[in-house]
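User: My instructor asked us to take a sequence, write out its structure as tokens, and then describe one feature of it. I'm not sure where to start. Here is the sequence I was given:
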Amino acid sequence: MSTDASSGGRWSLVSRLQDRLPRDGENRPHLVVCGGDALVYTLTEELVRSSEQLRITVVVPHELHGDVPPLSNLRGVRVMHAERLDERSFRAAGLGGAAALALVMPDDVINLHAALCAQAVEPDLRLVIRMFNTGLGYGVRRLFANCAVLSDAAMAAPAFVAAALGQVAPTHFRLGGRTLHTARRSAVSERNVVCVLSATDHSGRVGVLPDPAPPRPDDLVLAEAPGRKPMPEASPWRRPRRHLRSFGRAVRVALSRRLGIAVLITLLITAVAGAVLAAADDVQGFWRSLYVTLLTVVGSSDVEMDRNPVAQAAQLVLTLAGVALLPLITAAVVEGVVNARLALSNGRVVRPHSNHVVLVGLGTVGTGVLWRLNDLGVEVVAIDRKPDARGVKVAERLGVPFILGDAAREVTLRAASIERCRALLVVSTDDVTNLQAALNARAIRDDIRVVLRLFDDDFAQHVQTAFNINVSRSVSRTVAPAFAAAMLNRDALVTIPVERNTLMVSEMLVKAGSTLDGAPLSEADGLPKVRVIAMRSRDEQWMDWHPDPRRVLAAGDRVVVVARRAGLHALRAAATPPDSRAEDTA
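Assistant: Let's start with the prediction itself. The structure tokens for your sequence are:
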């Protein structure tokens, strides 16, 4: 352990080497990873397992999240503890001369501040920044010349959606405010086709990213998901029945059972006593009988000594029933109004659903899942116990029913029509709640498809086996490969398996002095095995999904492509000035 006394106790350095580094270790690229939750471990483990020869330094706070495995398990990794990520800490970590820095703290502001400090220490550093707020991420990318901004929530969401829908692998992803997916041309509208991924020619050969050709129904295409269509208006003949069912559900929620029973018993006594009084006084007609009964109930009857004993007894019972009935009715009205308002605000008065997905947890991951399910046209009922959760406003905007409650309780799951759903997707940040919700759902319906989020990957695998959960995933384990690829300067945002090949969706920055700087967009699209699907101008955040191929590119523009590995390499060379390419080669 080594400590710098001049820091005044603000940070302390603790470094360990489980393996002795070779004497020529300084010649290997140096990567620095900073984080405080499970992602810092899984990302470092991914880098250690890569085929690259690397020197890795991990910077973590003194108190790590409880789900982080011991970093001592990672061989050949230097571990440093720091109170905060500032220039002093980065210099102590050897950031000067490092190749890349990953900032994966679970706080956007901390990561942004750390990125600014790191740039002051090493201006040519490649930055990989974790950002929950994607809008802020677009702005951050413009601050740094060599920067990748990734959202673990956005990257993990497709895997959870695919598991919930029973797909073998995620075939969709969200980019530039749209959800794209792979499908056969015959299964999508032609106006939603973005590009052709593979096609079969007349000889039966399959071509990946083929040259333009007449469309065929069996072409594999990248298409935009059309989104969930609005529900059709109910037939006028069915509206009264629907309104009656809604009224019945509202009454059941608004009134407690005991109060309802008390009101019914009092009304029954009143009706019997009123009938007896009307018969004893020989009152003719229904209206006259009702008139006498109601006036007696509210205390408007006079003392009549000459009445026969039966009528007097009925009058006395009605008067006493009226004394009890009026407060009971008042209490029922007050309780009904209060409970109904609470139920409406909590989302408990919702229509029954079927063939939908019950989504538990509207945090960062849950919000991403909600967007994708909605884009894919899947009906969703959302549950969260926090009224201010990140995705609550998104659910309101999309018209998704939201239930405020604890998903670990059976009554909450039943309110979401768990008996008729197609899958339960549990992605809250509480492992205990997630597991309890899954087990309660299985108790209600033993054949329900359950997709469960757990922080610890090893625990997730054991839970999946022991409790027969369909899929149990760890977010950090799911997204770590993408963060590692970004640190190693691999530009793929998404990988798409096609036949025995892998296509990559990449967003390439056009640099000043490069071949593409000042060239038409068609020059990028004309590279072998490269298809341009969109572009983003230097001063714009929105993405142009139908760019004119004659448009002239400028430094700072970003071109979004689907490409093979060789095509991506050629595009990178065209977007990088010759002197930078020479430095990269050296």
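For the description part of your assignment, you could build on this observation: The chain has a mean pLDDT of 77. Try explaining in your own words what that tells you about the chain.
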